[in-house]
Structure formats: C-alpha cells, structure tokens
Amino acid sequence: MASIQDNLKNVTAQLPQGVRLVAVSKFHPVEELAAAYEAGQRLFGENRAQELVAKAPQMPSDVRWHFIGHLQKNKVRAIMPHVSVIESVDSVELLQLIEKEAARIDRTVDVLLQLHVAQEETKSGFSVEELVQAGEQNLLTCYPHVRVCGLMAMASLTDDMEQVAHEFDIVRRTYLTLKDGPFDESEHFNELSMGMSDDWQVAVKYGATLVRIGTAIFGPRRY
Ligand SMILES: *Cc1c(COP(=O)(O)O)cnc(C)c1O
Fold first, then answer.
1. Which ranges of the chain have pLDDT less than 70?
2. Which domains are seen in the chain, by residue range?
3. Cα–Cα distance between 90 and 94 in angstroms, integer?
4. Nearest-CA neighbor of 82 among 106, 114, 109?
5. Measured in angstroms, how far is the CA atom of residue 177 from the centroid of ligand 1?
6. What is the pLDDT of residue 222?
7. Is the CB of 47 under 6 A from ligand 1?
8. What is the pLDDT of residue 122?
9. Whose CA is nearest to atom 13 of ligand 1?
10. Ligand 1 atom showing the smallest separation from residue 68 Cα
C-alpha cells in the first residue's frame, strides 16, 4: 500500500495551480494526520464536530480546519474557536447562528454555502432556487462576522461521470449567477469546493478551487 506521503504527492502533483487540497481526515487517527502534516499538508477537513474539537488541540496550530459535514445548530459554538472555514452552510438559519457565535467570540469566520445537486435526498444543502432567492432577499450578505467565500457541493455517488459533470456544471453556473448578483461587490466570493477521491478530476474541469479528498490520501475509513 502506498504511504500517505506518496498519496499526497501524487494528488498534489496533479492539481492545477490555484486548486487547493483539503485532506479529509474524518475517522482517521491523529497519527495519520501527523504523517500528512509532516509531508507538508496544512488544510484538513472533518465532518463531525466532536471529532474536530478532539483533534484540533493535538495538531500544530498552523493547521487550518475546514468543517465539511452537516452542522447541527447546537455544535456551532464548540467548533467556532477551531474552524477556519465552515464549508457546509445549508440554511439561512445556520448562517444567522454562525454570525451570532462568531460575534460572541469576536472573530470573523469564512463559510461556503452548500448546494444540493446530487440525486440522493439524504445529502444536505440549498436547492439552486432557494439559494438564488435567499440572495435576492439579501439574506446571504448581511453578516459582519461571516465572509461568504463561495459554494460547496457533492455530486451524486455514481460511476456515471456525465451525470457528475452535469451536476458540477450546475454548481459552477449557480456560483457565477451569485457572483454577478448579490456578491458582485464581494472580494471574498471566489471559491468552489467540489470533487472527492473519485470525481475530483471532473470537478477541476468545472472550476473547482478546493477539492476535498479523503480515501485517495488516507486509504479506506474504518467506521
Ligand atoms: C468524506 C467526504 C469527502 C471525502 O470523500 P472521499 O471519497 O474519501 O475522498 C469529501 N467531502 C465531504 C463532504 C465528505 O463528507
């Protein structure tokens, strides 16, 4: 089996300039994160609040943590001191709560808005219509402690790469609509987080600036 270091090298060597890697370390022990850190990786993604809160103090302080899972409202306060980007904002209510909790500890936090484009109903996120409407109602841009930096999405779990491409294209077009609309004065709205181990090459073709890769770096997860 290839080492974490080899896997990291292999993936990052293929990433075009301007595309950053979020190493998705969920369910992997800190020893494996430390191996990735040793190899130069600084950006890590976790999808469960308790796990992020437990791992963060065990890693060097220059690690940047992206939260990428469904965020329960009662967990926002716990992750706020640790997280650099909350990628998975899936409702206006959550955005409002993030504003409140960021203000409470006097920080500014970067977030991405999660768009639901996959066929599976279980995945979370705004629909395209909801997001465009929220933008028109000025519900996305009125937060002094939150910088909305772009969109995040997951494609359907399928081998059909045309379907995946179609979904990433919807994300890209929605991003451009918002960038021309409610975010036209924002310097921060520049990120498209899409692509995982099996579909990141497709995501990059559709303009991903962040890819979130777990299995192809750390191997299979032991749940
Ligand atoms: C687990 C996860 C990933 C990484 O998935 P892999 O297939 O292991 O690369 C990416 N994004 C999100 C939101 C995840 O939950």
1. 1
2. 4-217 (3.20.20.10)
3. 7
4. 109
5. 26
6. 85
7. yes
8. 80
9. 68
10. 13
